[in-house]
Amino acid sequence: MLDDRLLLGPGPSNPYPEATEALTRPVLGHLDPAYLALVGEISDRLRAVFRTANELTLPVSGTGSSGMEACLASLLEPGDTIVVGVNGYFGERLVQVAMRLGAEIVRVEAPWGTPLDPGDLLAAQRAHPHAVLLAVVAAETSVGVRNDVAALGTELASTDTLLLVDAVTALGGTPLEVDAWGVDACYSASQKCLGAPPGLAPVTFGERAVARMRARSTPVSSFYLDMGLLQQYYQASPPVYHHTASSVLAASLHAGLGRLLDEGLEATWVRHERVGKALQNGLTDLGFGMVADEKARLPQLTATTLPSGKEEAPLRRRLLDGYGIEVGGGLGEFAGKAWRIGLMGHNATDRSVATVLGAIRDVLG
Amino acid sequence: MLDDRLLLGPGPSNPYPEATEALTRPVLGHLDPAYLALVGEISDRLRAVFRTANELTLPVSGTGSSGMEACLASLLEPGDTIVVGVNGYFGERLVQVAMRLGAEIVRVEAPWGTPLDPGDLLAAQRAHPHAVLLAVVAAETSVGVRNDVAALGTELASTDTLLLVDAVTALGGTPLEVDAWGVDACYSASQKCLGAPPGLAPVTFGERAVARMRARSTPVSSFYLDMGLLQQYYQASPPVYHHTASSVLAASLHAGLGRLLDEGLEATWVRHERVGKALQNGLTDLGFGMVADEKARLPQLTATTLPSGKEEAPLRRRLLDGYGIEVGGGLGEFAGKAWRIGLMGHNATDRSVATVLGAIRDVLG
């Protein structure tokens, strides 16, 4: 049996070779000047991919979910109101995390597979002008849908409501403009379109988010994910010890981001767009359906329903066991009905498309 | 300038060669049966080093601090009382994390550098019999002190108070017996005496802790660090998706634990004891002082005051820049006054002792 994997699920993707090599660089202590300099360079590279000048831009020591929680926990206080767009699993997760933090939730929904209407989100904010946050997932990994967040920031800039964007699957794969779009806070993950292994969550806070955090009247319930403490650790001089961050993961993310920026951010968007289309055309030819409408369909993550009469789990298992290819199963409403095929970062290539279509053709028989 | 490091601070230590090699094994998806099997084996190995049969034993996706928070957040509800032993920085951190979670704190103190009196801790529990937790750091990394936790569990077993032990620096370095000592919950970190890189926090919960978690009337405020959700992810069948755990770190921890168990847990205790003594004797010969009394002094982490008239920061910097050797500075009361020298896991060797003593001799001039 193959024990390596072509990772074409919803992430992790296979890291860039440079990111894998960097894993074995000498381990550095969490307060070593060389480690802090490395994080400084990671922050610079993250600013380039987030398209922001935000000072408070750094990798949180956890997976994408920890990035979501770092943002919500640092920006919300108990009793605060948050407007959340929900059209898939990760919008639902924003609701769950915010509820646990004691927030009042205003849900704005669209059917799973359909993009959120920015007008609905803004109307909900106008109905709840005291809302502290409006949160949207830019690329809903559960259904392969792109939500339009470009239009929101300008409208919210004149209100007291901050825009929080989940860019876990979006960052490095499809256009995202933190500053130009007026995004106040944004989080992502290392293991998708950034081409590094899982374990770090890039987060960026703009001035309004930093001010909101500083104006809290209650402490952040999480010590580990308090963005204010992380700022004191990574960006104060001298650094204030917070946790034993992993230079292993940092070196790898640094290398993945370097490779991405060498190619050029816009070039990677074009690459993801091209191979995603090729995959979707190939799947359609094989009788698969598309969960998302073409206009709102992501290229880096395709949610696809199987040809009628085909059971998803055994076929997915045959791809894994027989070909060493991972594709994802459906989440939530699409569990048992759909696959999620990712072409992200190092895996966003014509070779991946040819490989997975060829293997799918085989297992369909 | 040397860009590799001999890591003789309070952690990370240099990983075992097997743990470094394992970092470049093929990345696995977080729901891949091969990844879940790997975590199952890690749990088995962790049970062996924790000396427990606890079913709920797993690596949390974060550093040691995330392990501390996973335990406190999962076991405490707002308004609950916790008795905390404080004789150093990490006891203080237990207080800070518990306070943020809305707990009432009963502090039991000893001067930094002096072990906690188990009688004081038990007396505080008797005075607050409704306390949900009594928490103690087994090996206080900030001052190199061993706290006696062996005596506590038996006494607490007949009460409603659970024993939580911080074993971040203890595990794999000095004796710790989760089951025999009646420890209800315990957390550690991958990068110290376990000989793997930072990024994972082993946690174990006994039956009383699981029952306590199940009896909660409020949700755990942290989604990311909710031990109940992690149990559903790693130990339910089928696994319930929670976060994109890093197979890279898991493979490395698995290898580090394998190396440790091949040597034998008790043999590693003996090795740490021997080299720690050798270092402490050598430092004393060079005019250094010991922060902790001999009876309560840890072998794997030595807190040591510099010979009179020697400034710590420039000398520590010379060790780093000239020799590529990291030792830690003092924390809290000992900032600017002491060093913390770790001999942990792969670095607990005669070679490390000879190297660091030789380099110190050089820089003292």
UniProtKB/TrEMBL annotation, chains A, B:
Keywords for this protein: Aminotransferase, Pyridoxal phosphate, Transferase
Cofactor: pyridoxal 5'-phosphate
Taxonomic placement: Bacteria, Bacillati, Actinomycetota, Actinomycetes, Pseudonocardiales
InterPro entries reported in the protein's UniProt record: Aminotrans_V_dom (IPR000192), PyrdxlP-dep_Trfase (IPR015424), PyrdxlP-dep_Trfase_major (IPR015421), PyrdxlP-dep_Trfase_small (IPR015422), SP_NH2Trfase/AEP_transaminase (IPR024169)
A single GO molecular function term of this UniProt record: L-serine-pyruvate transaminase activity
Keyword Transcription regulation included in the entry's annotation: no
Residue span(s) of domain Aminotransferase class V: 39-330
Pfam families named among the record's database cross-references: Aminotran_5
Name of this chain's protein: Alanine-glyoxylate aminotransferase
In-chain residues carrying the UniProt-annotated modification N6-(pyridoxal phosphate)lysine: K192
Protein family (similarity comment): Belongs to the class-V pyridoxal-phosphate-dependent aminotransferase family.
Domain of life: Bacteria
UniProt keyword annotation of Metal-binding present: no
Binding site for substrate: R340
BP terms from Gene Ontology: glycine biosynthetic process, by transamination of glyoxylate
Annotated source species: Pseudonocardia endophytica
